[in-house]
Amino acid sequence: MHASRLSRRAVLAGTAATAALTAVPLSAGHARAAEGAAPAATAYRWRNVVIGGTGFVTGVLFHPSVRGLAYARTDIGGAYRWDRRAARWVPLLDHLGWDDWNLLGVEAMAVDPAHPDRLYLALGTYAQPWAGNGAVLRSADRGATWQRTDLAVKLGANEDGRGAGERLLVDPRDSDTLWLGTRHDGLLKSTDRGATWAPATGFPPAPTATGQGVTLLVAAGRAVYAGWGDGGGTAPNLFRTLDGTTWSPVPGQPGGAFAKVPIRAAYDRHTRELYVTYADAPGPNGQTDGSVHKLATGTGTWTDVTPARPDGSADTFGYGGVAVDARRPGTVVVSTNNRWAAVDTLYRTTDGGRTWTSLKDRAVLDVSETPYLAWGEDRPKFGWWIQALAVDPYDSRHVVYGTGATLYGTRDLTHWAPEIRGLEETSVTQLVSPPTGPAHLLSGSRDIGVMYHERLTASPSRGMATNPVSGSATGLAQAARRPAYVVRAGWGDHGNGARSTDGGRTWTPFATQPAIAEDAPGPIAANADGSVLLWSFVHWDGTKHAAHRSEDDGTTWQEVPTFPKGATPVADPADPARFYAYDTGTGTLYASTDGGLTFTARASGLPAGDGQYELVAAPGRSGDLWLSTKENGLYRSTDGGAAFRGITSCRACHTLGFGKAADGAAYPALYQVGSVQPGLIAVYRSDDEARSWTRINDDAHQWGWTGETITGDPRVHGRVYLATNGRGIQYGEPV
């Protein structure tokens, strides 16, 4: 999913100034008002704004010996445990904080059949040089509490091959022994329940700098099998050990392009057969060929049981998930993956693979609980990127499968609906809380565009914003003095910008768009009365382009040469003639007093260069600007950007927003993700123009990366909406 890309966009922060400072970065030598003093804290209740899924569910695992106990993993949004009584998923990794953002991606998970309360997770989102190393968490209470071991290697839960696995396994002969397959560092082994790890001796393949390394680990009786994703052709890619020490290639294994990468495997203990799905690439993208084979482990006989072979031209795909029915010998379900022409499906056999039935062909999909899954069409599709797949060991007709956006389940093999309550994996980029109207929140996200939230506790009934349908949102803005007027921008197939005159319920595409908008949609702003639009353009590779302006609702557009390329336009909330922009390259504030026709430089010498910056305007006030910076804290201007002064109560600010003022206060409440004391990045509220801050999250509610955007509710004091990169929209209220 594109949503999985971690945003490194500059963010805003802030509050009111307390001491007049120069418009230059605060150095380490400057005294800070609250330095060394812990901020006050207040109790908040945190919940997800409900959308339902929206991200790639990469693994589902039923516990083999406990009815109703199941776990799910995602590529960037943590792991979950199924609460059978509440019929919802419980997040297990929300305690991971800012410094551990790379651990919100779950590479693999494992349970111990002999000890039902034990759970193991292998964490690490990216294996790139700029990302941190992976870690293994182990729990003796089903994920309620954890012990952690940091690894010396990197894992890649959001990289190619993330739907393969599982790569983590409790040894069938000894519950104290665990195996962990890595992408670039071979096979690791632990003999103390995951507390320490070392390279497994005797594992044949040599680690490589490229490729997929170990793709799967599965127990078959007392043997352990490992898939190897760097093989292909005639090279072996499936290995096994019978004694936990000696590894060797499995004899007679299939080869060729259709069996280049073993994706997943499942063992039927009744028939002593191992089923393996293969593809010509690790997926989820790029697979064009694949197969399904089974191995009779007693005799060593391989059989090709592929349900349908890709045709190499119009109908191309690989195979992904595989699950056996623990109650019915020879009953197996497999999934296709990356099948766009005929659409992915599940195949089910009850005779060991001799015959198969496509479950999609008679499927009835009910997405009324999560309407966005219709993707702007008349009916939802069965799904795509199907690699997570499981059959309930206590109910043969309860099958679940993950897609790039949800988790579907059935109880009768015909009627399917999302089984996704509690699991929220959206990567959120935009938040607007309107001052009036039925909806308290509008949101923009990667992959699922813009949504109108009539209720915070139910998925938006209108689904994704349509007309046009767009994927990742790049801009969302409301006219401050005309809140029914909203504009949005994002990646779409039929235009990349649209406007709404009913507060975001319905949309009309811009009649035209600048040519550059097709390849580089960026942030957009509407002036205070909605009479002028200003659209900035940034290509996905970071290339910046000239902004364009429209004063006829997007019917015509004109380039604005004096606007700093790639900057985010900010409209003055009170004066329709004023716009602002911050040039991060030079540390200069630019302003327009003619409705965005021309921009001139004002304050300079502000923080510049690589890093996070965001400019925001205080609601209802002209020229009241706040500049948040990751390295240098928070700045404020009350004269339209002619001069800024530093806010001494804030050490670092990643994102800043405003909400309804406290009773008796004359200034809006301020919310930020930032730091007001050494070593802690948290969520804060200020009711006194940033003279002091109150921490409003706690150590159990941190959600990794939260630096994208934050906003308070202009109608409810204390309510705040927080964007995360993988745990959806969190909203908090005082208790």
UniProtKB/TrEMBL annotation:
Protein keywords: Carbohydrate metabolism, Glycosidase, Hydrolase, Polysaccharide degradation, Signal
Signal sequence extent: 1-33
Transmembrane segments: none
Gene Ontology molecular function, alphabetical: hydrolase activity, acting on glycosyl bonds
The keyword Hydrolase is assigned to this record: yes
An individual GO BP term: xyloglucan metabolic process
Entry keyword Hydrolase: yes
Family note: Belongs to the glycosyl hydrolase 74 family.
Name of the featured protein: 1,4-beta-glucanase
